[in-house]
């Protein structure tokens, strides 16, 4: 019997059209994707391994096989905690550096599946279609990526009904009895080269005159006419792992998706030209709360990792006795504990929906998500302030310690409590968080992965019950 890891690798050997450095490439033959795919394979192995199986998976009610926890419908706080453990295990395996491992997208899908009957008012076929796909994705271990945004051509008039096509928006160009044809583009699709399916819908409020773009779709990555256009690769090879420990394993590729007359069968068109339904999809609490519960658990792991790194660096250079360094390390610990508290609060203050789903509390999740957009850049800044010139003053490679002047190098690159080689490895790890292209992408991701941070924070104000707070003031007036 094939392992899930084998099944995953073999399944990518299809007709998908991936573009990198101006050439069409095969996903399994390209160095740029090797580290990330290997990391995903290692995670899938956890579902087959009896030692880890129970913490990351549960038994499918249909097949009796182990399937990932992100598909598990929580019916109690205990179920939610099981989901948390699974997300922790996966994020700890990459120190939170890989964010789109499909567990976010699978959780979003699970949420919409739970709420499927609410959408029957818009389309009587929605419930059946999403149920079929949810079961298929769960039991076939499908890797899914959610892609919501439109290409950044001209944000001033992009949704002008007269300009929908010129604006590059993904829209229907033809319909047949069997399905629809699509043209246009979508961004950003993280993990696109090794994804099985894209789950696509727009996240803006549309009206009837814009209905040709108001669709929710499943798009298989090997669909004819679909082009996956990758950004520059930041991946380093396995041989460079000692100098670039994160870039060599965790560069999850981002891509823009171009649709050149792509056919999608009706069974994968969950919502068809319906702005109101698309808005309900975007706002659906089941999907948002389950999806972002995973996202903030991953964020916590990443902040823990940066805090550990900062503590280690401070000790290595003998800086822990300085008050301002202690204060900054304390700030990092506060970040970790704040996000941890939000996760626990979201679970403890969760509630049962009409559908019998125990959902984490959205306000606690939103709070952690919004804090994360400033916490992470600040955490990287603190790392810079503590490590200072040390991150740049390393030899060109750990390999350099094998040189004729290695005795001298061992003397001058050492730390307060570690030898020169260990200190160099530590600072190269820090550089992969602060200064490499991988590091820059990672910071940009934390700022923007859940949309525009400014509008998201404003949204928290707009949706909050501030009357309760202003009433406290009124008694003085
Ligand atoms: C590395 C990375 C990976 C990502 N991966 C994914 C993914 O896999 N799937 C996914 O769905 N998303 C993903 N995202 C998020 C997403 O694609 C966008 O980057 C994010 O939603 C922000 O939108 P934008 O980049 O188009 O910025 P824009 O919306 O173009 O914003 C640009 C600027 O204009 C301002 N602005 C634009 N419109 C308005 C407005 N109406 N009102 C006020 N201000 C406005 C913004 O505040 C900002 O300052 C990813 C993001 C990053 C950085």
Automatic annotation (TrEMBL):
The UniProt record lists the keyword Flavoprotein: yes
Domain HpaB/PvcC/4-BUDH N-terminal intervals: 6-271
SUPFAM superfamilies in alphabetical order: Acyl-CoA dehydrogenase C-terminal domain-like, Acyl-CoA dehydrogenase NM domain-like
Name of the protein in question: 4-hydroxyphenylacetate 3-monooxygenase
Keyword vocabulary terms for this entry: FAD, Flavoprotein, Monooxygenase, Oxidoreductase
A UniProt-annotated Pfam family: HpaB
Domain annotation HpaB/PvcC/4-BUDH C-terminal: ranges: 292-476
Molecular function GO labels: monooxygenase activity; oxidoreductase activity, acting on the CH-CH group of donors
InterPro entries given in the database record: Acyl-CoA_Oxase/DH_mid-dom_sf, AcylCo_DH-like_C, AcylCoA_DH/oxidase_NM_dom_sf, HpaB/PvcC/4-BUDH, HpaB/PvcC/4-BUDH_C, HpaB/PvcC/4-BUDH_N
Residues at which FAD binds: 152-155, 190, 452-455
Keyword Oxidoreductase: yes
């Amino acid at each position: 019997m094939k392992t899930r890891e084998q099944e995953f690798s073999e399944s990518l050997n299809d007709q998908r059209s991936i573009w990198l450095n101006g050439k069409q490439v095969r996903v399994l033959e390209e160095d740029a994707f090797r580290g990330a795919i290997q990391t995903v394979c290692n995670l899938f192995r956890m579902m087959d391994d009896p030692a880890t199986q129970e913490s990351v998976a549960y038994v499918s009610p249909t097949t009796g096989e182990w399937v990932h926890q992100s598909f598990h419908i929580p019916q109690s706080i205990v179920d939610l905690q099981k989901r948390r453990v699974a997300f922790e295990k996966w994020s700890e395996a990459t120190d939170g550096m890989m964010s789109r491992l499909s567990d976010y997208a699978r959780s979003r899908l699970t949420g919409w599946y739970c709420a499927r009957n609410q959408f029957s008012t818009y389309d009587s076929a929605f419930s059946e279609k999403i149920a079929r796909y949810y079961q298929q994705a769960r039991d076939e271990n499908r890797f899914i990526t959610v892609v919501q945004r439109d290409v950044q051509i001209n944000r001033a008039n992009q949704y002008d009904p007269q300009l929908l096509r010129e604006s590059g928006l993904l829209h229907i160009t033809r319909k047949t009895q069997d399905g629809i044809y699509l043209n246009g583009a979508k961004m950003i699709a993280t993990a696109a080269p090794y994804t099985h399916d894209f789950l696509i819908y727009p996240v803006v409020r549309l009206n009837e005159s814009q209905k040709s773009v108001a669709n929710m779709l499943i798009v298989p990555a090997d669909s004819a006419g679909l082009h996956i256009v990758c950004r520059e690769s930041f991946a380093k090879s396995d041989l460079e792992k000692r100098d670039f420990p994160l870039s060599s394993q965790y560069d999850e590729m981002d891509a823009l998706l171009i649709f050149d007359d792509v056919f999608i069968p009706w069974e994968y068109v969950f919502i068809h030209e319906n702005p109101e339904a698309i808005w309900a999809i975007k706002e659906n609490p089941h999907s948002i709360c389950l999806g972002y519960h995973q996202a903030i658990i991953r964020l916590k792991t990443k902040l823990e990792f940066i805090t550990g790194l900062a503590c280690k660096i401070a000790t290595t250079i003998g800086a822990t006795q300085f008050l301002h360094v202690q204060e900054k390390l304390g700030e990092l610990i506060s970040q970790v504990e704040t996000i941890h508290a939000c996760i626990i609060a979201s679970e403890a203050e969760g509630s049962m929906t009409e559908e019998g789903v125990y959902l984490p509390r959205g306000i606690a999740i939103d709070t952690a998500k919004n804090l994360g957009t400033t916490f992470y850049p600040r955490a990287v800044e603190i790392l810079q302030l503590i490590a200072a010139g040390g991150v740049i003053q390393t030899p060109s490679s750990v390999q350099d310690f094998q040189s004729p002047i290695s005795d001298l190098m061992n003397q001058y690159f050492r730390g307060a409590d570690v030898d020169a080689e260990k200190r160099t490895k530590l600072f190269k790890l820090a550089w992969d968080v602060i200064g490499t292209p991988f590091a820059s992408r990672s910071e940009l991701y934390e700022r923007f992965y859940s949309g525009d941070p400014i509008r998201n924070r404003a949204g928290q104000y707009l949706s909050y019950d501030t009357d309760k707070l202003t009433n406290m003031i009124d008694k003085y007036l």
